[in-house]
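Blinded run. Sample ID left blank on purpose so nobody reads anything into the name before looking at the predicted structure. Input follows.
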Amino acid sequence: MDNKEYLNAERAASWREALRKSKPNKDRINISRTEMNELTPDYRITCNEEVNQGLTREQALIEASRCLDCPDPLCITGCPVGINIPKFIKNIERGEILEAAKTLKETSALPAVCGRVCPQEKQCESKCFYLQKLKKQPVAIGYLERFAADYERESGQISTPEIPSRNGIKIAVVGSGPAGLSFAGDMIKKGYSVTVFEALHEIGGVLKYGIPEFRLPNRIVDVEIDSLRKMGVEFITDCIIGKTLSYEDLHEMGFKGIFVASGAGLPRFMNIPGENLIGVMSSNEYLTRVNLMHAAEPDAETPVFHGRRVAVIGGGNTAMDSVRTARRLGAERAIIVYRRSEDEMPARTEEVKHAKQEGIEFLTLHNPIEYIGDEKGHVTKMRLQKMELGEPDESGRRSPVAIPGAIEEIDIDEVIVSIGVSPNPLIPHTVKGLNISKWGTIVVDQESMKSDLPDLYAGGDIVRGGATVILAMGDGRRAAAWLTLAGGAGRRPPAAMDAQLSLSH
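Blinded prediction complete.
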């Protein structure tokens, strides 16, 4: 059965036909998109509670009824992990929420995570019929995904996918971020024995150290990791592949295949005067210390500095996470400094909205050129070059151009640099035979995620250099679909192996 046939067969189920007939499409399209319930800005900047509060059951059923159950569901093509979106949404509409959660788990190892942090507006929702043809707001796919996952967790009836008997083949995963977890979930479902090696003391990778709890609570991540444990995935922490254990050690331990998902945690700086001043740090350090090491707590042994005038350099999601964290730590003035305009910002629309609601200032078309310190070596001022937009660069965003002589100076006492990250260099530098790009990423076949080494696959930021959670998960799923160990070579997965995944690529 090919992909089209599979989806048509699912859509032809009697219960879905009955749902389509229960409400005319003209009535469905007149329903307004549901708004997410949120904590008020004045309250949420005083605590670390999750901002988005989720949908009620009534809201979810109404929003699900907007879905037209299209015969050609383009929303699936926009999902990097190939979730059968119409099926899970229609299960919500008929009140079978637990079935909706099971549908999500057929393809996604982290539905509650993705429902919170995925840029749906750029992916599945961007392909929605409402937006493409009707010029209306798309179905709130992300909100519904979160609702289904949260409903299952809170019901206490958490389902575990059926796991076949073990085939005796051991697979190693390097890194417990979204790519590694997604890969592990798919491989365990195929009967492999899977061990995930994590360098830090907690499982979750960037989901734990990089994303604040007001956007993604750790308890949510822990539940989804626990589901993988129940499926049989083994986790080993405090183990650095390339140092604690080598590539050769993994072979000696009996691992026949390796998936590298070691991420991109090496911060980038601008190399401008004053970057070594006290109070200037990377977003990686800042968020890791706050999120993972609890450095913002009163009794912290190595407390993080609480700046009163904080500037965050950058315009991505990590920059938004950093500046909103600073606001919660007491910053009286918290500023986003970005060299392009707001329209070019890569951050999710929702994150920008929330930041503005929380009193964050946006200093766009400005670029730092120097940090100035006091006699004790602590940063006190920042010199900014005003910019204007020129022609588009390779990414399609208009390039910033300096306005001659347009320089201004502002007072600050903390700078958080969030201009991107470079791949973790440890695996590329310690595993011989890998093809490494000029950016330090592992070069892989884009279809199979296979490296130049016959048993080593890679995905996520170690390949992409910095991307979203869901794109990393898609890499993990693709590698799992291709990884076979017959002769140590990857072969094309059969069409029936994973219809949704194939459709989404």
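Unblinding after everyone has recorded impressions. The longest strand covers residues 379-392.
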